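>> received
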Amino acid sequence: MITVIAQFKLPQPITKELARQTFLSTAHNYRDLPGLIRKYYILSQDGGMAGGVYLWNSREDADRLYTRDWQSFVREKYGADVSLTYFECPVVVDNISREVLADG
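>> returned
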């Protein structure tokens, strides 16, 4: 599995409620996306940084999303360029489903 942290500095800080509304307006884009296990929308406590944490089955699955078109969408929606950081994610502990997921 691969975890990707996408983050960007907002042109001006936003409230948690505005972030919630904005994030909900795009959440449908990530439903049933091939290879995406989970996505978390994130907002810094001061409202100045935002982004997402994505858990993918593979790097190939992740790369199908992070195209120039997707980066342009983020830039237009949030007014900032996004930075992507990739991490190997060999084990996930999910306390809601009570599962431990492991690569392989």
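>> Helices lie at 16-27, 59-65, 68-78.
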